[in-house]
Amino acid sequence: MTSYSKEVIRDLAAGQLPWPQTRRIMSAYKDDDRFFKMVAVYQDRVAWKDPILLPVSDHLFICQSGDERITRCECGHSFGDYRKNWKLNAAINVRNTEQSLREIYPNSDLPDPEWMEIREFICPQCGTLHEVEAAAPGYPLVHDFEPDLEGFYREWLGKPLEGS
Amino acid sequence: MLDKPASALRLRERLLDSERLMEETGCYDGIKELTLRNQDPLKFETLHTKLRAYCVSAREMARRISASPGVREVGEMVVAIYTPEGDAIALSNGIMVHVHTMSRFIKWMIKNNYEENPRIREGDIFANNDAFIGTVQVPDVMDVVPIFHDGTLVGWAGAVCHELEAGGITPGGDVCLAQERFTEGLFVCAEKIGENDEIRRDYVIRCERNLRMPIYWVLDEKAKVASCIDMRESVKQLISEIGLDYWMTVSKEFIEEGRRAQLARTRQLTVPGIYRGHTFYGHVTAGKPGFQLLGDPDWLYNIPIEMEITTDGKITMDFEGTQPWGYHSMNCTPAGMDGGMFVTLTQHMNFEGLVNDGAWMATELKLPHGTWTNPDNEMVATATSWALLLPAYGVFQRLLSRSFVARGFVEEAFVGQVNSPMIEMGGESQYGTPFGMAHFECAAAGSGALAIKDGLDTAYVGWNPESDMGNIEVWEQSMPMVYIGRSIVPNSGGAGKYRGGCSFVSTWLINKTSHLRLHTSEHSSRVFDNGGMCGGYPAPTCQKHRAVRNSNIHELAARGEPLAHAPGIDPHVSDYEKNFGGDHVVVEGPYITSPHKSGDIFSHSYNGGGGYGDVLERDPIKTAWDVENGFLTREAADQVFGIVLKDDEDGYPLADIDATVERRTAMRKQRLAKAIPVSDWIAAERGRVEKADFAPEVKKMYASAIKLSSRFTKDFSDFWNVDVRSIFTPGAKP
Asked: In this protein, which residues make up the domain named Hydantoinase B/oxoprolinase (chain B) (predicted)?
């Protein structure tokens, strides 16, 4: 069975593995122990102790926090119950003027702000930009991901979550 | 009639029986056990590798027969081998989107009793480019031939080429001005075009008299038929070696194995759950010549997608909430939607093991009737389906990628494909003859970023993973334009920790013609349709067209003065305006205008991909390299990424790490100072929704989605806590 060291997985996740090695990993049979190794890499990265259950974005994790399962930023900020859209507890910056769009697109033609705006979802604690939506004005926010966390652990990983 | 049916049942009954068995058992053709695979796995794998080799070899041979630079240079072709019922067993590389669309074509003929009339016999050649039967768009012309072994139908060989000219209302393959079926070009509707391995002369005459550039289509027909015959003879030889009974069983087991492999791959790479995303497409044609006022000339489409992965590994994609079909060329049929799904899966999940129709069988598409994904009117045009397919399946790639990130396979996460406009042309060639062509250099746009590195620059399109822009010299042989520039577009990838791949822009001098029609298709306007992921920004919107009529380029050249070779980086005044005299033209959206002539200059930009991750985490050293090599501007490095560059002793950009850290700290503070809680934003925006204080096209989009989808209506109402039906569709019955 293919398997890599935790150090290799750490460097891969950080984008620091040399490309030839990355390329070999991409082409090889997948390593079935990846998930828990990657979770361990992320766990090392964060300063908090809540066990990570699932990464959901570059710096967002679902973790077990006491009796609750919450979405937490790498900095420790809690976005609340993992079943709810974390964006509702984020800070937002909307770019819907030529001037504000030009800050991100200094040399290109721009969309019509009447047709399209950019919504930046930011951690209110550390300022990390977690997600960007491009949507028509008035369009509801997207709930990107509702994982079947219990089904995943029970049926695919063979390690049912406690309390489920 | 078949001399000998494939089984005791006739073909149509056999197909229906196969579908029934799948329904009842959940397994392809009712195959619950892979007997031959279990008996001799090595023989099983070797045989499939042989079939794949037949396909790859046949395609390469056929590309040498084609006259089309689209097929020869860019590889716009795919071939495959099918079961008697029309399910793909093995396929080549190339435009794999069509493997399943050809499957639909074969099944359509079977279900429409082609056994009776026009009959299916050894040596017959059938062709189709009708998307409601099984293709994506008119230029995707497919040919299939039955494979008989000792009088028994044992399979089909099929091939598709994308034609560069389809004989529609506007020249080229993707007929951007088509607003209904009758202007899309030459249709071949599941037609028997040849017998005894020979293409009928009357069919060729029809092509010659209805196309602007028949040499491409006709020679591609010969190339496809040659590849089909090549595959057919290889399969017959193989059957003579392994026996007919073995073939009939193993070919089905290959597909069931493919289905199981797809389910297993999903369980291995992803996380079960519900994933959501959306994209948009804008169309601007008001006042442009040729458009009939059959619908709104300017419109905005929303494309929401909900993907569900269940614990058995099945992937379902649901398009509920999207827009109705319209009087434009961008509608898509279920066959095209299937094709988009197939080509995406083959890139993202089927990179090992058996790749065939089994992968498609492990998925499900929910395409709401009456929408652009599944029109309830077969007269609609689908000539440029890719315009909506590409952004839609770009969303699919991002949804899959989120599942890869969640599972820890970050190296597989890929922000995805892009919608990128292409050029169609026709008129008088540089040789003084009529011509028509699609310029396929668009097959090398920028890709979305990966979760571990930047996207591919000028090297990716979703529909053909074997991406290639073709050589300038070859394109110049085929059109009355010469290149005066082909260069990277700086900042054309979406910003992010990892930026999207950059696109390129070409600039041409129109040469040796008095009448050149230039049009563009798949040209979205006024929106971002190539999104980012995990904090990455979307790629820039489609760039406007810039042309110079009656330019003074020849005078400048005679005087040895500098020319402009690209539009430059000033969004308000292009380098063309700075350098060339003449009548300067800037056109938003699809380029539909009067013909050009020698001495005019035309430019066209392709699109880059979306970014991944927070821009303030981008590597400063890599960014300095990007600036040095023209992928990013200094302005973007400083303003967007917060990277301070200074010059080294040779004047090259050098990252100032300490100053960058300081600048980024300040930018994060600015971010937080400007941002407001989402709850505050929702409270403020609700008033705007209640008043429907939006542009007319936005209001129309909401009204259309509300009329078609109760789920969209409920989600929209619930989110803002208002009754959107009474706001956007007053007076309409619920």
From this structure: 40-614
Q: What is the pTM of this model?
A: 0.96
Q: In total, how many domains does chain A have?
A: 1
Show residues of chain B in contact with A149, CB under 8 Å.
Answer: 273
- Six-digit token pair at B696? 């007319």
Asked if B372 contacts B301 with a C-beta cutoff of 8 angstroms, the reply is yes
pLDDT tens column, B480-499: 999 999 999 999 999 999 99
Residue B283 pairs in a beta bridge with B299
Residue (of B462, B456, B523) closest to B493 by Cα position: B456
Query: Is A124 a member of any domain?
Result: no
Tokens of B714: 């409920």
Please tell me the distance from the alpha carbon of residue B411 to that of residue B113, in angstroms, as a whole number: 48
Residue A16 lies in a domain: yes
Q: Which residues in chain B land under pLDDT 50?
A: 1-8
Give the CB-side neighbour count of residue B321, counting CA atoms within 13 A.
Answer: 21
What digits encode the pLDDT tens for the residues B218-277?
A: 999 999 999 999 999 999 999 999 999 999 999 999 999 999 999 999 999 999 999 999
Task: Quote ipTM for the complex.
Answer: 0.98
Q: Are B531 and A134 inside 8 Å of each other by CB? A: yes
Among A22, A88, A108, the residue with its CB nearest the CB of B411 is: A22
Which has the closest alpha carbon to B717: B573, B249, B257, B729?
Answer: B729
Place of tokens 């102790």: A49
**A136 vs chain B: nearest CA distance in angstroms?**
7
* Residue A36 within any structural domain of the chain: yes
Pairs across A and B, CB distance < 8 A: 247
CA B527 to centroid of chain Cα atoms: 18
Sign, CA dihedral B703-B706-B707-B709, equals positive
**What are the start-end ranges of the H helices in B349-385?**
357-361
What's the distance, CA B97 to chain centroid?
Answer: 8
In a domain, A37, yes or no: yes
Minimal CA–CA distance to B264: which of A30, A2, A3?
A30
Domain extent for A23: 1-45
